[in-house]
Design a protein that fits this description.
The protein has about 425 residues and is α+β, with helices and mostly antiparallel strands. It folds into two domains: about 15-300, Zn peptidases (Aminopeptidase); about 340-430, Immunoglobulins (Immunoglobulin-like, Sandwich). The protein has helices at about 10, 15-20, 30-40, 45-55, 105-120, 125-130, 145-150, 170-180, 215-235, 255-260, 280-300; strands at about 65-70, 75-80, 90-100, 135-140, 185-190, 205-210, 240-245, 265-275, 340-345, 355-360, 365-375, 375-380, 385-390, 400-410, 415-425, 430. Strands 1-2-4-3-5-8-6-7-12-11-14-15-16 form a 13-stranded mixed beta sheet, sandwiched between helices. Helix 5 crosses helix 11 (about 280-300). The radius of gyration is 22 Å and the shape is globular.
Amino acid sequence: MVKPAATLLKSLVLGITLLVLAQVSTPLSADIFSDLLGRCPASPPTYNHIAARLQALANNPRCSVAVLGKTPQGRPLYVAQVTDPASTQRQATLFIIASQHGNEPAGATAALILLEHFAAAPTTLEREILKYLRIVAVPVANPDGFASGRRGNSRGVDLNRDWSARSQPETQMVVAAVRAAQPDAIMDLHELPAHSGKPAYQDNFVETIGMSRALPTELCHATTAVSSTIASWMKTYGYSLNVYFDYPGDNLALCHRYFGLGLKVPTFLCEAKRGGGRTLRERVGFLILSTLVSGNYVMNHSVPLPPSPPTPSPSAPSPSQPSPPVALASGPSTETPVVAVEYERGQSDDPDRGQLRVRVTSAPSFEYVTVCVGGQMRALGNSLNSTWPLDVTSLPAGRHRVTVTAFGRGDVELASRDITVEVGSDGGARAR
């Protein structure tokens, strides 16, 4: 369940608020997250309903709506944007690609909610944000599949495996729209199946680029900073989350890797978990919250980012605030957690892709835990009990150190645990 909302976006857009406070006579405070969730329907809209609402947005002076082209079955593929057309400020661009898979409606629902809410701009805060931010969205990247509830398009092609080849008109049109928009960041919104044997599919997750010397430093700083901040805000609002990281050499057929690793645009794959009683509202909320955090980054991307993750959590004190006085404790802190790590070999149908089971004993200050393999961060999560995939097929034969570290508020390291995974010449692995 999502916790009662606080004034989230007032904090999320703190950097932008400081820029505009001198120009606005009233305080910039609004709970945009709750307002956005309040727009979520009980059931997802149909493609025709979305098309009609996009056409209605074309009459709003803050919006523009265009048809990129037609699908094989003749449906229009829409792109829409909302911003302040009279702004004289530098406007960053956030591009949303939703519902590549036609049986995943939460992304389209979230994108439409964001467009309509900011088009209405009900408070001063939204109007000020639009002076600095342009939101561009393809709410339904797979109109034919969406209309029929199928994963693939009308030709049976999984569009999220077509970005390297771009053999389909839908992927070709979206790439053209992204190139025209020249975005500062891209959101790729999806849903996970309710049941899956894949360890990576057991909970909500975000996937993006990790720290790599083979990639532009600014790109890696942006993706790791945003992803760790998303994890922190998700914990604040009661969403469990894992974060996975991509590196050069990974398959570029997927949308977020094509734009991220391929075109060097900060791109975030957001997967909302279905099943387990998770309503459309909860899935849409996960996607919207991820988008809000990323939007905050692109509005402030000229601000120097820290050299490496993790970034300060929302509850961390500002660097300008005085540090609290140091107090001597009579005994060890009761907040220090214990980290336990187990490695399990993959199942018979996938024997060389094992998984890590991580358990962190509860501590009031716990924020998130990271997983590094050979010093390279592979995953991050905000749950006390997590399961992560460990693809040993990407590792050379030999011993590899896996380090799991728990962090608390203010990015303080609380506890760490190392295990050694030995990969054999046959590609199999075992823990030592």
